[in-house]
């Protein structure tokens, strides 16, 4: 995998976790924060760490923010700083700007000012936890948009020893099975005659409401 360059702005819990994981995966990460203590700590896990006020356009220009593969605005509490930093990063030609939103209204503003991707870490974690608490099948979820997701769930008992044609999830719940994971093996784009076994994990795409119905099956 080709090494990429990322700038993560805001070293709160989300920003730190992201910077750590990207570094662990072998990518170059510039960690930026206004707080000196956070920056000193970030030196331990990021490729580079800089103390800077990202509401200052000249500062971001000097850091070459437009040259990174992606800029992640992970500033949490200071919404003004979050929004202005996103605007400046876009104006300086950043290839992709991903911005963290505190709430739905904040997210709408980030969408309007041109953020390429808006993420809601607290909301998404809460939804994930809620689903895992009420469904013994739930494994993982990737949000594609506000309404559509890809989820991983253990095959409901109702489907065990049946094939996809018998189940016909597309007609039943308007959900598409993208792949089936069985132990270490994964079958992509399974055919209608593929049988499901106890312990298989379904990777399915659909509207969140329909996926929730799938989650609720026993």
Structure explained in plain terms:
- There is one protein chain.
- The protein is of the alpha/beta class and 218 residues long.
- It folds into 2 domains: 5-119, NAD(P)-binding Rossmann-like Domain (Rossmann fold); 124-215, Alpha-Beta Plaits, CATH 3.30.70.1450.
- Helices cover 36% and strands 26% of the residues.
- It has 9 helices and 11 strands.
- It has helices at residues 13-24, 36-42, 57-62, 79-91, 104-112, 121-134, 164-167, 169-173, 208-215, and strands at 5-9, 28-33, 48-51, 70-73, 97-100, 117-119, 138-143, 148-154, 176-182, 185-188, 201-207.
- The chain has a 6-stranded parallel sheet with strand order 3-2-1-4-5-6, sandwiched between helices. It has a 5-stranded antiparallel sheet with strand order 7-8-11-9-10.
- The mean pLDDT is 90.
Briefly say what this structure is.
This protein is of the alpha/beta class. It has helices spanning 13-24, 36-42, 57-62, 79-91, 104-112, 121-134, 164-167, 169-173, 208-215, and strands at residues 5-9, 28-33, 48-51, 70-73, 97-100, 117-119, 138-143, 148-154, 176-182, 185-188, 201-207. The mean pLDDT is 90.
């Amino acid at each position: 995998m080709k090494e990429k360059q990322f700038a993560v702005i805001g070293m709160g819990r989300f920003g730190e976790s992201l910077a750590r994981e990207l570094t662990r995966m072998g990518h170059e990460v510039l960690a930026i924060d206004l707080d000196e203590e956070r920056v000193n700590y970030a030196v331990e896990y990021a490729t580079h760490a800089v103390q800077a006020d990202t509401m200052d356009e000249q500062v971001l220009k000097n850091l070459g923010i437009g040259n990174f593969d992606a800029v992640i605005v992970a500033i949490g509490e200071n919404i003004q700083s979050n929004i202005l930093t996103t605007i400046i990063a876009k104006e300086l030609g950043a290839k992709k700007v991903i911005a963290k939103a505190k709430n739905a209204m904040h997210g709408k503003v980030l969408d309007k000012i041109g953020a390429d991707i808006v993420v809601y870490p607290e909301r998404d974690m809460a939804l994930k936890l809620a689903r895992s608490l009420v469904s013994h099948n739930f494994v993982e979820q990737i949000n594609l948009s506000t309404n559509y997701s890809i989820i991983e769930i253990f095959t409901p008992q109702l489907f065990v020893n049946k094939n996809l044609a018998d189940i016909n999830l597309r007609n039943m719940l308007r959900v598409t099975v993208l792949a089936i994971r069985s132990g270490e093996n994964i079958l992509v784009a399974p055919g209608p005659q593929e049988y499901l076994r106890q312990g298989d994990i379904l990777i399915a795409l659909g509207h969140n409401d329909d996926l929730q119905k799938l989650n609720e099956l026993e």
